[in-house]
Amino acid sequence: MNYKSILVLLTVVFLTINCSKKEEEKQTQSENTDPHSNIHKVLVDEVIQATEYTYLKVKENDDEYWVAVTRREIEVGEEYVFTQALEMKNFESKDLNKTFDRILFIQEFNSTSTMSSSMMGSAQGGMSTPQKPVLSKEELSIETAEGGITIAELYNNMEKYSDKKVKIKGKVTKVNKQIMGRNWVHIQDGTGDKNSFDLTITTDELVNNGDVVTFEGVIALNKDFGAGYSYIIIMEEAKVL
After folding, report:
1. Superfamily of domain 151-240
2. Tell me, what's the pLDDT at 204?
3. Quick one: which of 24, 67, 97, 203 could link to 104 by a disulfide (CB 3.0–4.6 Å)?
4. What Å distances lie between residue 80 and 28, 60, 88, 137, CA to CA?
5. Taken in order 166, 170, 175, 177, is the CA torsion positive or negative?
6. Cβ-based neighbour number of residue 215 at 10 Å
7. CA 18 – CA 155 distance, rounded (Å)
8. What CATH architecture applies to the domain 40-125?
């Protein structure tokens, strides 16, 4: 093989390796901007405060998009990390009189300056599966609603109540308002063990943390809304009695 042939061969090998490397980089960048996977590190470019939420325009690599978090003080130029999000298309904020073509509602939004060492380690290693926030069981003793059931009874007889309308009385421990056109409410009634003390409810009703209310709604099993928001059991279309 002469010198010219060797030079041509080396050029072909170099181009092949370079193209392969660029394709890997392109794929990696695409994966990093997917709002439904891994930990995302973003830079805040714009902040808009509303009644319930803080709306943020953020930049992740070369991608810019809007996110919403529970109202808080956030400065432009700060870096944040999140692992889970509910993506909404054509979301209308009545507070702002503004429609977002695409926006992510984020449950856990942590400043990189205050992140725990364990979470930072996960960010460096890459977490593949988003995690829902950890909820704490409160010490409660709430009387069962007339004609209703307890949260423990619901969990212990899930198949029996699947697609059925039930009544449950409990204390509101967490509220996320107007996500996907509904309010997301967590209640506890003091029953259940460490894996079955909390019930997630979707509703049009307005309630606040600390309220003790009776909800009536339809029970659904194994619902997956994406972005790590999957529920073994959930009450939907609930009304306050």
Report:
1. Nucleic acid-binding proteins (2.40.50.140)
2. 92
3. 67
4. 20, 10, 20, 28
5. positive
6. 24
7. 55
8. Beta Barrel (2.40)
Q: What is the Cα–Cα distance from 24 to 30, expressed in whole angstroms? A: 10
CA distances from 97 to 62, 92, 191, 194, 204 (A): 28, 7, 42, 42, 20
Where does residue 97 fall: left (phi above 0), alpha (psi -120 to 50 degrees), or beta otherwise? left
Strand 63-70: give its sheet, edge to edge.
Answer: 85-93, 98-106, 63-70, 53-60, 40-49, 79-82, 110-111
* Cβ neighbours, 10 Å, residue 106: 24
Are the CB atoms for 214 and 169 separated by under 8 Å?
yes
DSSP state of 163: T
How confident is the prediction along the chain (241 residues), in pLDDT tens digits per residue? 555 555 445 554 455 555 444 444 444 333 333 444 468 899 999 999 987 788 999 999 999 999 988 788 898 999 999 877 777 788 888 888 899 998 888 867 888 765 544 444 544 444 333 345 557 888 888 999 999 999 999 988 888 999 999 999 999 999 988 777 788 999 999 998 877 899 999 999 999 999 999 999 999 987 777 655 677 789 999 999 9
Q: Is 38 within 8 Å of 71 (Cβ atoms)? A: no
| One fold for 40-125 and 151-240 | yes
Q: Is 114 exposed, middle or buried (0-12, 13-18, 19+ CB in 10 A)?
A: exposed
- Sorted by where each begins, the domain ranges of the chain are 40-125, 151-240
Quote the CA–CA distance of 44 and 94 in Å, as a whole number.
Answer: 23
